[in-house]
Design brief:
By secondary structure, the chain is an alpha+beta fold. The chain has helices spanning 12-18, 37-46, 94-113, 166-169, 175-179, 185-204, 208-217; strands spanning 28-34, 54-60, 78-85, 118-120, 124-127, 130-143, 146-156, 225-229, 235-243, 249-253, 258-261, 265-268. The protein is built from seven helices and twelve strands. It has a seven-stranded mixed beta sheet, with helices on both faces. A five-stranded antiparallel beta sheet has the order 11-10-9-8-12, with no helix packed on it. The relative contact order is 0.16. Bound molecules: biotin.
C-alpha cells in the first residue's frame, strides 16, 4: 500500500459532511468504517429510512461488488456510499436504475475533473479501458414505505496503482492517477448525489429512453468483440449490440444468434480495451 499522506487532514467538504451537513436537504450519514454501506442502507431502508438518504463510509471491511466479488475499500482513498431510493419501478427495472446511475457518475466525474469516461454495461465506469468506478444496485425488502432500491457506488478517487489488490490492480484506475491531482471525496459525493437525483427523476418520469440515448453515447463495448460468461459458466463470444429499450444487453454471437444478457461477466476482447 502506498503511504497515505496528502489526504490527511481530511478533505474540507468530506469533513463538513461528516459534521452533519446534508446534500440538498438529504440526510447524509458518514461512518468511519462499515461492513458495507449497501448492507447498512438496506437495513435502514427496511426500518423506514427516508428516500434519498445517503450512507457513506471512510472504509468498508466487507465491501461487495457484482457477482459476489469483493470491493476493496481502504480508508481515505475512495468513495464508498449508497443511496436509498424508492423509484416506483418494478423489480425487473433494476438494470435501468444501474444504467441511470452510471450516467450520473460519468457526468459528475466529467464536471469535477474533465475526465472523459466510458460506460461498460451494466455497471462499470471506465477510463482508457480501466475501471474507475462500479455500481451495485440491490433491492430491499418491502417496508411501510414500499420497496427500496439501494444504489451502491464505489469510486476510485485518490488511490495510486499500488493501492489496488494484485489480482485486479492492472485493470483499475483512480481519478488521481488519470488527472494527476487529488480530489475532495466530499465534493465528489455531492456531485454524484446531485447528478443521480436528476437521473432518478428522469427514470420516474418514464423517460428511460432519454437516459438510454445518453448512455449509448458513452458505451465502451458497442460494436466490440466480447466474451460473456453465462451464469452456468459457458462462454459466449460475440459482438455487443448495446442495451435494448429495457436496458437488456444484446450480444450477436459468431453464429449470428442474438443473446439477451441480464447478468453475468463480460470481458472486452479488443486489445485497446483491457477490462
Ligand atoms: C462492482 O463493480 O462490482 C460494484 C462495486 C460496488 C461497490 C460499492 S462501494 C459502496 C457500496 N457498498 C458495497 O458493499 N458495495 C457498493
Amino acid at each position: 500500500m502506498a503511504e497515505l499522506t496528502v489526504n490527511r487532514p481530511l478533505e474540507p467538504i468530506w469533513k463538513q459532511l461528516q459534521e452533519g451537513g446534508g446534500i440538498n436537504g438529504r440526510q447524509v450519514l458518514i461512518y468511519k468504517c462499515l461492513n458495507s454501506t449497501n448492507t447498512t442502507a438496506l437495513n435502514l431502508a427496511a426500518a423506514g429510512a427516508p428516500t434519498g438518504m445517503v450512507v457513506a463510509a471512510d472504509s468498508q471491511s466487507a465491501g461487495r461488488g457484482r457477482l459476489g466479488r469483493k470491493w476493496q475499500s481502504p480508508p481515505g482513498l475512495g468513495l464508498y456510499f449508497s443511496i436509498i431510493t424508492r423509484p416506483r419501478l418494478d423489480l425487473k427495472d433494476l438494470t435501468k436504475i444501474t444504467l441511470a446511475a452510471g450516467l450520473a457518475l460519468r457526468t459528475a466525474i466529467l464536471a469535477a475533473s474533465a475526465l472523459e469516461t466510458e460506460l461498460k454495461w451494466p455497471n462499470d465506469i471506465l477510463w482508457q479501458g480501466k475501471k474507475m468506478a462500479g455500481i451495485l444496485t440491490e433491492c430491499g425488502a418491502q417496508s411501510t414505505k414500499g420497496r427500496a432500491a439501494i444504489i451502491g457506488i464505489g469510486l476510485n478517487i485518490n488511490s495510486e496503482p499500488d493501492d489496488f489488490p494484485m489480482e485486479t490492480g492492472r485493470r483499475m484506475v483512480s481519478m488521481r492517477t488519470a488527472a494527476n491531482r487529488f480530489y475532495d471525496r466530499g465534493l465528489m459525493l455531492t456531485a454524484v448525489v446531485e447528478a443521480m437525483e436528476r437521473e432518478v427523476k428522469r427514470l420516474e418520469n418514464g423517460d428511460f429512453a432519454a437516459i438510454l440515448r445518453d448512455w449509448r453515447r458513452w458505451d465502451a463495448s458497442r460494436g466490440k468483440r466480447l466474451t460473456w460468461l453465462r451464469a452456468d459458466g459457458m462462454p459466449v463470444c460475440g459482438i455487443s449490440l448495446g442495451p435494448d429499450e429495457n436496458g437488456v444487453l444484446r450480444i450477436k454471437d459468431t453464429a449470428g444468434l442474438i443473446h439477451q444478457v441480464i447478468s453475468g461477466d463480460l470481458r472486452l476482447m479488443d486489445k485497446e480495451k483491457r477490462h
